[in-house]
């Protein structure tokens, strides 16, 4: 066999391995300014100067070769060649953060002692320079006994040197040395510190700016207030900035629907395209601007280094329910989608801790809920200004988000005292440096989200909507019977059956109809309602906006109960599937689905009856 040599990128979390991987291979792995971004190995191809291809793997960051969490185990298995499927790398590129030398050198020394050919990438030298730290790579190389190349992954500086060095190292068929034994614990730490110290040429005193920023961001009183303010601005922005592009997309789809109706003769094809596909998928795609604004905020917060500070602030609060501060990042990722959030729990070392985080992750307001929330809020909640700059709609949205967090908080409290009992571990995360977000990273991040969203709309959401349309359209009621087509259809009858179950919590038949297909993806609730109302259209022109139709048919208590249902209901097949994968069995996903449905039913019921009692 003559496979391409395998080279692995290894190092501490947040050293810039993925950034380097992307720069070297042209891949688009996610980079983020916090530890634990990469949790799986990813490989790509790199062509060396002598034309030889190399397989490069990006690994999760680790602090040492004694793994304490599942993602670190991946790294250990690859570099030691222990995993059953792993081919041992032919060389390692050890990535270290120049501004954080003594910490990162500890792991680097362990890796070098393995005996594989090693090239050290002394990354982030730009940040070190910014902080007034000047290093001598040659001195470092002498002390470590391996080549050291200064790099700036995000600006592609030093990459040519790195490739040239790799060509040398691999090309020479560098022999694998015997693994050396190494001092451990304190002794290793001391040696790392010594080597780091002797590599420093000059160092400016305190990093004043960052210290000042942290004394505000981490202040016990100002810090949390700042965090709430940031989140609040984010929600208001999502609503107000998105209005114009949303209207544009909305009119676009209305125009398309009208055009199809005009171009095609009445009948099966026309109704399928206009009422089914266009009305349904269009109802979802309208929310693209909001999703992108939301992600713009999340990406900027991540890249700037603020996110880990937020995690640190939340740590004490999370500790009161027995969760570790490490759970914050997975939970935060779950605001995008619970699926990557649940995968990100691999950075949590304690099994019970991790399981609890997985079980509550679906309560975070994932982006699939935004279309549902916004549609209902936009239609049913008046857009009054309750305070200067604070509108009622944004406030309700914020309330739903807080509801999800409160639900998660309460669930964790109960779970940690019952099914996932155990001690919790403390916060263990280094603070990343403050950074100006890279425009290109933001663009790639937004692009990725847009593609994911549109792909879902074009595949799973379109397919589910079409099936629903079919079930809603057949059989047709006898002519002149006066029965509405939806009432007479298969779906209408199934809806009637489900309605019996959900009438006690204030749901109507249209909601009952939307619940089942929304299992595929939450946004389908929106496209389903869009389709139901397109088929059941009583307006003359048939171009009423979906919001106007909602206003005519739903009461406020029903709308509020529906919103509350979506805070809790585990309506997403992918989340259930990833939970099965990450917990190795059906037990925990089944438990998760059970407790969340029960919570959804109870909370929606309480909301409905309280709203009715309040005379809303
Ligand atoms: N200024 C500067 N920033 C960098 C450099 N390399 C990486 N970064 C940034 O540092 C952060 C961490 O980079 P990643 O590539 O995600 O780090 P990683 O080592 O893959 O981290 P894990 O996957 O968590 O182990 C990101 O915000 C990058 O944009 C660099 O050379 N200079
Ligand atoms: Mg990474």
SSE order and pairing:
Blueprint: E1 6-11, H1 17-25, E2 42-47, E3 53-58, H2 70-80, E4 91-97, H3 101-112, E5 118-123, H4 125-130, E6 133-135, H5 137-144, E7 148-150, H6 159-171, H7 185-199, E8 200-203, H8 208-217, H9 222-263, H10 268-285, H11 288-304, H12 306-319, H13 328-333, H14 338-344, H15 351-360, H16 369-380, E9 385-387, E10 390-391, H17 392-417, H18 439-473, H19 485-488, H20 490-502, H21 509-515, H22 524-535, H23 546-553, H24 556-568, H25 573-583, H26 587-613
Parallel strand pairs: 1-3, 1-4, 4-5, 5-7
Antiparallel strand pairs: 2-3, 6-8, 9-10
Helix pairs in contact: 3-7, 5-7, 9-10, 9-11, 9-17, 10-18, 10-22, 11-18, 14-25, 15-17, 16-17, 16-23, 16-24, 17-24, 18-22, 20-21, 21-22, 24-26, 25-26
The structure holds guanosine-5'-triphosphate and magnesium ion.
Short description:
The chain is of the alpha/beta class.
What does this structure look like?
Helices cover 59% and strands 7% of the residues. The chain has helices at residues 17-25, 70-80, 101-112, 125-130, 137-144, 159-171, 185-199, 208-217, 222-263, 268-285, 288-304, 306-319, 328-333, 338-344, 351-360, 369-380, 392-417, 439-473, 485-488, 490-502, 509-515, 524-535, 546-553, 556-568, 573-583, 587-613; strands at 6-11, 42-47, 53-58, 91-97, 118-123, 133-135, 148-150, 200-203, 385-387, 390-391. Among the domains are: 6-205, P-loop containing nucleotide triphosphate hydrolases (Rossmann fold, 3-Layer(aba) Sandwich), CATH 3.40.50; 440-613, no CATH class. The strands form three sheets. It has a six-stranded mixed sheet with strand order 2-3-1-4-5-7, sandwiched between helices. Helix 9 packs across helix 17 (392-417). By secondary structure, it is α/β, with parallel strands linked by helices. The chain binds guanosine-5'-triphosphate and magnesium ion. Guanosine-5'-triphosphate binds next to helix 1 and helix 4.
